[in-house]
Amino acid sequence: MKYPTKNSALFNFLLLVVFFTMSACFTFITDSDEDTGNTEWETAFYEFEQRFVCFCVEPAGRFQRILVKENKILSIVDAVSEAPLAEDKYRFFKTVSQLFELVNTTHPDSVAMIRVTYDSTYGYPNEIYIDYYENIADDEIGTESRNMRLLR
Fold it and tell me: How far apart are CA 115 and CA 49, in angstroms?
C-alpha cells in the first residue's frame, strides 16, 4: 500500500480533516454576545438541573433541580430522590446570570485553565471548569447544567 506524502493532495486533505476534527474538541472564549449574558435571565422564571463539581463535601457531584425566579433560587431538590436541599447548601449553586458572571469575571490569565461550553438551545454556560493553579491538586471547580425548562 502506498501512503500519501507531504506534497500530495491526499496528505493535505487528511491534514485538514485532522485539524478541523481536533479543533471541534475545544471551546474558545470570545468577547461575543454569547458569553456576556443578558438581562433576560435576571427576570426569567425557569427550572434546570445543575451539579457542582469539586473535591469537597456534599452536595458536590449530584445533580440538583433548581427553581429560579427573577435571579433568585426558590428551591433546590435532588434530581433523583427529590429530597429538598438544606438552604445553607444553596451557596454551591448558581443561577444562569451568576454562571455568566462567573465566566465574565474569570480572566483567562488569572487561572491555569478555564473551559466553558454553552447550551445550543438557550445559550447559557452549561459547563464551566476552572483550574486555578496548575501545580496544586484539588483546587479545580466546575458546574454542569442541563435540562433547562422555561416556566414563563
Answer: 19
Which of 50, 52, 49, 48 is CA-nearest to residue 61?
A: 52
Q: Which residue has the cell 491526499?
A: 10
C-alpha cell at 71: 435571579
Residue 54 lies in a domain: yes
pLDDT by 10s per residue, the chain, length 152: 565 555 556 555 544 433 443 334 334 443 434 445 567 899 999 999 999 887 676 777 889 999 999 999 999 999 999 999 999 999 989 999 999 999 999 988 899 999 999 999 999 999 999 999 888 877 788 999 999 999 97
* Range(s) of the domain holding residue 127: 29-150
Q: Report yes or no on 2 lying in a domain.
A: no
HEC-encoded secondary structure of 71-103 = CEEEEEEECCCCCECCHHHHHHCCCHHHHHHHH
Q: Give kind and range of the element (H or E) at residue 66.
A: strand 64-69
Query: Would you say residue 20 lies in a domain?
Result: no
- What does the DSSP assignment read for 18-53? HHHHHHTT-----SSGGGT--GGGGS-EEEEEEEEE
Query: For the chain, how many structural domains are there in total?
Result: 1
Q: Has residue 9 been placed in a domain?
A: no
